[in-house]
Amino acid sequence: MATATPQKITTFLMFEGKAEEAMTFYTSLFDDAGIIDVSRYGADAPGEEGTVQHATFSLAGQRFMCIDSATKHDFGFTPAVSLYVQCEDEAEIDRLYAALAEHGAELMPLGSYGFSTKFGWVNDRFGVSWQLNLPS
């Protein structure tokens, strides 16, 4: 039996102290999702003890990696790069949009923009940008 080929390109998300909270939130929203592996900063590590040094999680079978950066940066996430989700039905797009927009920022409210039945774009509470689409 052939083994599955590992994912060659993986989205990598850098947080500053919110990686675990973000992973837990994201994995609660999607089927076939879960936290795969987490390593944490120890007492003598450069990052805050107990925060995520490196983690792998999956959403709808797609793997992601994240960290809590031990270094403060003058940049964050940008909507120029977003996670694009093809939703199965109207209930799913409505649920995801509401959850991701809560304490976030609505960039394009849910609606029909001519290129899909229903579409919305949000930055979530962590600053990660999501485009949600319900195909025609």
From TrEMBL:
<dbReference type="InterPro" id="IPR029068">
    <property type="entry name" value="Glyas_Bleomycin-R_OHBP_Dase"/>
</dbReference>
<protein>
    <submittedName>
        <fullName>VOC family protein</fullName>
    </submittedName>
</protein>
<dbReference type="InterPro" id="IPR028973">
    <property type="entry name" value="PhnB-like"/>
</dbReference>
<dbReference type="InterPro" id="IPR009725">
    <property type="entry name" value="3_dmu_93_MTrfase"/>
</dbReference>
<dbReference type="Pfam" id="PF06983">
    <property type="entry name" value="3-dmu-9_3-mt"/>
</dbReference>
<dbReference type="InterPro" id="IPR027259">
    <property type="entry name" value="MTase_demethylubiq_bac"/>
</dbReference>
<feature type="domain" description="PhnB-like">
    <location>
        <begin position="7"/>
        <end position="132"/>
    </location>
</feature>
